[in-house]
Design a protein that fits this description.
Blueprint: E1 3-6, E2 9-12, E3 16-17, H1 28-40, E4 45-47, H2 56-65, E5 74-79, H3 89-100, E6 107-110, H4 118-131, E7 137-140, H5 144-151, E8 162-165, H6 177-183, E9 188-191, H7 209-218, H8 222-230, E10 236-238, H9 245-253, H10 261-270
Parallel strand pairs: 3-4, 4-5, 5-6, 6-7, 7-8, 8-9, 9-10
Antiparallel strand pairs: 1-2
Amino acid sequence: MKTVTISGKNVPAIGIGTWHMGDDPAKETQEIEAIRAGIDAGAKVVDTAEMYGSGNSEILVGKALAPYERDDIFLISKVLPSNASKAKMEQHLDASLERLNTDYLDLYLYHWRGGTPLSETINELERLKQTGKIRAWGVSNFDVADLEELWDLPVGKNAAANEDLYNIETRGIEYDLTAWQAKHDLPLIAYSPVGGLHNELKTTMLENKVVQEIATAHGVSAHALLLAWVIRDGKTIAIPQSSKAQHVTNNVKAADIELSEDELRRLDKEYPQPDHKVPLAIN
């Protein structure tokens, strides 16, 4: 199983995303079973945020994780830009911890950039790390210019990860961001690794003939094959979301798929690498 080292911990490269989960009480049991199925299949990383359902996702995650040893899970949540100030962040972190029924986060991410000066946000994240309420902090939806600004801050290099949208159909970050992060030993967390839930444009990934042929050759679904592609470099964690237990189990098993150089070339031909800078994709 492919793994990635993040904040000093070695974790499976396929985690569990929870965006759009926790909002429908009728689906609670099914969604809890889905998260637990992923953990039982070997997943360690569970990603949520205070934004998701205005806290409903964190509540769901807290319930789902109740039977497990806390130290066996790498738990991530995120703070909204509007709450990322010295005056507000700790109370919002405390609220997230209460909803998650835990006394610490393994990783706390600044969800995206807002009006608070970056230095203030990062200094507060670093202070909260010293309290023990978070083991590490990172950022999300940052591009190269943002990361360079972060790296220039006195404690900016303490960032443990950057979470961005990334999949075979949306490869813009490969132009310069992935190389920058590799050079600076900053792991990438890929959200929407098989496309977003509410994309306005229909994805072609799952129906692509070459994707399907390679998936068939490996005896896996197109979905699993695309996840294996996202984590191919050994420096990326993918956090697909699903409310179906079997689907989540299959997602986790994608970390066992090894793609050949020929298969990667065929996929590159279908979905070419970027040859110019494009705006950071955000879903």
